[in-house]
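Deviations from the work plan: none for this task. Representative record:
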Amino acid sequence: MRLTCPFCGSRGVEEFTYRGDATVRRPAGDAGAAAWVDYVYLRDNPAGPHQELWYHGAGCRSWLVVTRDTRTHLISDVRAARAVAQAEREEGAV
Amino acid sequence: MVESLFAQPPVSAAPVRAGDTVLVLAPMGEAVSLGAFAGAGRAALVVRVRETFGVDLPEQPRAVPSADGQVVFVWCGPTQWLALAAGDAVEGGLMARLRAACGDLCALTSQSDSRTTLRLFGPQAREVAGRLVPVDLHDAVFGPGHVALTLAGHIPVILRQVARNPVTYEFLVFRSFAESLFHDLHVAMNGALS
């Protein structure tokens, strides 16, 4: 499997580390126990496109949000996690 | 000259040669990493370096020399660069010059004793490097000034091409891995040429 780092270009998967589900969001501090259990422990296991975090540790050390089809390993999108977070923040501010 | 913290050189071996291709430990220079502070730090740093050194910090994996040729800025990540200078190139030292120029905009850390430079050059340098490095080094896509942060075998390196004739690469490697990488490159030289 290869990932196209937005900074370094196409690289082998051995340069990256899988760092988990990129879709979970930290709940508010006063959210109930159920919301926190969901955030800390419970993960979906979708058959199909999935957004996940990868870390380019042997390259530019960037965190990436990769959209991967869990059935075929087809990578449909790779974006810098920083850019994804920024876009979300701007969306929230509007 | 730059004073090393260490009494021993990072690689004990003398330069090795296979055919006309040569692997040698480069003389120690000064290396300083620049990590732009969050927020507006990155944009301000680019402007400041342009004003002081007459060059735009690379936005892509490239290495660019300053206008006076004394300092090379190597792309090292989206908000990081590595400044390199020959041992006695910068009067007063590279760190002092950078601190005066842009110390308020980025984290400056001396890497002189952290990184070691191995230089590989000669007619078969590309074939030798290609044995260890999993990136495309073809002349059409990787030429002088190009940089790759990757693995050479299992060793993290900053690879840059410095010349085309003869093809010359520099491997910036952590000091404690330098001996091992030197060995691996030596084996690759013998393999690539046999």
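Helices of chain A lie at 33-40, 81-93.
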